[in-house]
Structure formats: C-alpha cells, structure tokens
Amino acid sequence: MANIILFDNEIREHLLPLTYTKPVCELRVGILTIREKWERWLKSSAFYITQDYLAGKYGLDYGDVNYVINGSVLPSAQLCELIRQMDENEAYLQGDELIVAKVGARQLEKLIKDEEIEDLIGMDVQNTQFDKINRIWDIFQLNDAAICSDFELLTKDRKSATISDTNRIIGDGPVFLEAGAQMECCTLNTTEGPIYIGKDAEIMEGSMLRGSIAIGAHSKVMMGTRLYGGTSVGPYCKVGGEVANSVIQAYSNKQHEGFLGNSIIGEWCNVGADTNTSNLKNNYEEVKVWNYSSERFQATGTQFCGLIMGDHAKTGINTMLNTGTVIGVAANVYGAGYPRTFIPSFAMGGPQGYKTFKIENAFQMVERMMARRDVAYTSEDRLIMMRIFEDSSKYRRWEK
User: Fold this and answer.
1) Which are the contacts of 165, defined by CB distance < 8 A and separation ≥ 6?
2) Residue 1 has what pLDDT?
3) Cystine design at 271: which of 67, 194, 254, 375 (Cβ 3.0–4.6 Å)?
4) Using CA of residue 110, residue 68, residue 59, residue 17, what is the dihedral sign?
C-alpha cells in the first residue's frame, strides 16, 4: 500500500486558532480525526506536510509510491474508490485546489518545494461526493454526518458491549459501547442518529443523550448531563451541563453546568463552571467571527455559531460569551460582563481589560495540566508554543 501524506494549504489559515498547534488533519470531525479516518479507509499510516514549526512533532516519511491528500478533505466511499484506481502521476482537483495526487518520491520532493511537476495529469472531481472543511464553522456543521459515517466505519460487523437494562433507549437507531464503557440509569434517544460510547468511557446516572452523539475513549459524562445531536466529545474529556452540536477535541473539560452550542473546543482546555455561550443573536442576524486570514470579522452564512476555543485556553466561573466568540491559544478569560468576541492567544483578562500571559507562566500551566493525565510536555511542544506566542503578538495590542 502506498504511503498516505496529508498536506496543509491556505485553508489552514481559515481554521486558526485550532490549527496553530496542529496540522488540519489532526482536527476531530465526527468520532475520529481526519487523519484517523484516512488511515482506516486506506489501511495505511499517514504522515504530514505542514508548517515548518510543526514539522518536528508532525513528521514526513515517504516511499516510492505516495498518496498526497488534502488534509481538509474527509474521505468517502466514492472518493476512496477513485483513489484506489489512480495511476502514478495522476491528480484530482476541485477547481484549482489539489484534492489528491499519486506520485513517486521524486515528484513528491518537487511538490514539497512547490516546484512544477511537468508530467502530472490533473482531473476534476466535481461529480465525486465528499465533505471538506473550508471554514472553521464547517466542523460543527458537518459533525452530524461525520458521526454517522464514522459510526458505520468503526462498528461494521462488530457487536456492542452489553448495555445495562437500567438504561432507557428510545428509537430504533443503533447504540454501540466499546469494551469497558460504563453507563447506568441514562436515557438515550436514537430516533435522529446513532450513539457511540468509546472504550472505558463513563456515562454517569441521569444523563440524557440524543443522537447523533460520540463519546471518546476514557471520557466522562457527568451526572444529569444533556447532550443534543451532532455533538462529539473526544478522548480523555469531562463534559457536563448542556451541549448541542459541538465538538470537544480531546483532553478538555467542560464538566459543570452551562450551555455550549454550535461550538468547537480545542485540546487541553477548561471551560469554567457556569460558563455560558450564546449561539444565536437576539436579532437573528447572520453571525460574524474573527478570521485570521483576512484579519477581520467574516460573515459565516449561518445564524448559529457559539464559541471557537484554541488549545490550552481557559474560562473562569460564570463567564458569559457572546455569539461567535473566538478565543486564542493559552488565553485565560474571566471577569464580569461580556468579553470581546475576539480574544488573542496568551491574553489574560476580560471586559475590564487584558494583560499578556507570559510564556514561562504558560509553560508551567501546560506542563501541570498535561502531567495530571500522564502526558509528557515535550521540547517540540515548547517550541510550538513559543512560535505561537511570537506569531500572535500583533493581536495583543495592549503590548504596543
């Protein structure tokens, strides 16, 4: 089998702050990350072409034959069938954007250097069905369909662990528990989508889940939690309160009361007790969010958009967040009132003003949080954070 190499392009800029810390393909959409989907569909390990400062952690390896795939593309049965039928030096395009190419080592080296590959044959994929993340809100808008697709991929020809009869299941849709998952005295409604509970996850008593829902391995759903359709909770998370059509990537906590809707939470985040997000404007107008590529607020084309939170960010208790709020990496938001709807990385404060979260203090915070989960904070992680601190300084205008 050919190597899989997932590449970033200019779409990456539209997915900041989530992609400050990782390649696009490491984003979770549905049950799996985009990389995990491709590895399962094509039955091979994946590598990366990404930003230079991320390459130390997300490396590249290639062979004599390689599938070079756009990291913002979600695999589908039709697209994967086309890929399997490709000849070397063929490429599929969507307009001017490369979707996938099958190339040898020499051609790949040219592609990495952004040099022209003379003998590459390009074909259009306009009639091929697949989903693609072009803007950050696409993640939660596509999440329901992605959960259903991943559910079928992960559970085909497999049998669920036993579901305790203390639970009540409404509807004829599927529920799948991986080995070690615990769930007692919960209500599950499958009339509008499947429910997937990962390995060693725990759904505590009184929780209500309305599919489609995905709970990652080793995660905990706290007592009395209400989860609505299109919601994914990644591995090693804690979630509570009320959550609708949102994606929590991994290793993050939102374990207390408070509403989270049409939102994306990065990794290693903590949403403080009774933090509430607005996902609909009072005048029902289209939501605008901060776009790092244009460095201005951009219309989303939707009425529903809540919170976008970068990795290692935090909110204090009782934080109130307006519709379409974007919080950067390692920001710490607190205080009475509504903070601004764009909060830069390494910002500390709220409506009363901001100061800079010093990089050495950020290192200490991150190391302590990761140590609680027995995850090492590596030198590569530190270098990535230093680069983000530098790149995001232009948005911390109080430093000027």
Assistant:
1) none
2) 65
3) 254
4) positive
The C-alpha atoms of residue 386 and residue 379 are separated, in whole angstroms, by 11
Computed from CA positions of residues 46, 82, 11, 247, in that sequence, does the dihedral angle turn out positive or negative? negative
Q: Is 245 left (phi over 0), alpha (psi -120 to 50) or beta?
A: left
Task: Label residue 207 left, alpha or beta by phi (over 0 means left) and psi (-120 to 50 means alpha).
Answer: beta
Q: What is the pTM of this model?
A: 0.96
Cα–Cα distance measured from residue 337 to residue 71, given in angstroms and rounded to the nearest whole number: 38
- Cα separation, 348 vs 53, in Å, equals 25
Residue 250 token pair? 């991994």
The two three-digit tokens of residue 366, written as one number: 């991150």
212-264: per-residue pLDDT in tens?
999 999 999 999 999 999 999 999 999 999 999 999 999 999 999 999 999 99
Beta bridge partners of 47: 5
Q: What is the DSSP letter of 292?
A: T
User: What does the buried/exposed string (b/e) look like for 229-240 if buried means 16 or more CB atoms within 10 Å of the residue's CB?
Assistant: bbbbbbbbbbbb
Query: To the nearest 10°, the Cα dihedral for 317, 343, 140, 301?
Result: 130
CA distance 272 to 316: 5
- Tens digit of pLDDT for each residue in 154-208? 999 999 999 999 999 999 999 999 999 999 999 999 999 999 999 999 999 999 9
251 vs 271: CA distance, rounded Å: 12
Which DSSP string do the residues of 61-112 spell out, in sequence order? ---SSEEEEETTEEP-HHHHHHHHTPPTTEEEEETTEEEEEEE-HHHHHHHH
* Integer angstrom CA distances of residue 181 from 30, 227, 246: 19, 17, 22
Residue of 387, 248, 400 whose CA lies nearest to 330: 387
| 3-state SS assignment for residue 290 | strand
Q: What would the two tokens of residue 391 be?
A: 């790149």
In whole angstroms, give the CA distance from residue 189 to residue 228.
10
Q: How many whole angstroms from its chain centre is CA 115?
A: 31
Name 68's Cβ contacts closer than 8 Å, sequence gap at least 6.
5, 7, 49, 98, 100, 101, 102, 103, 108, 111
- Mean pLDDT of the 88-110 span: 90
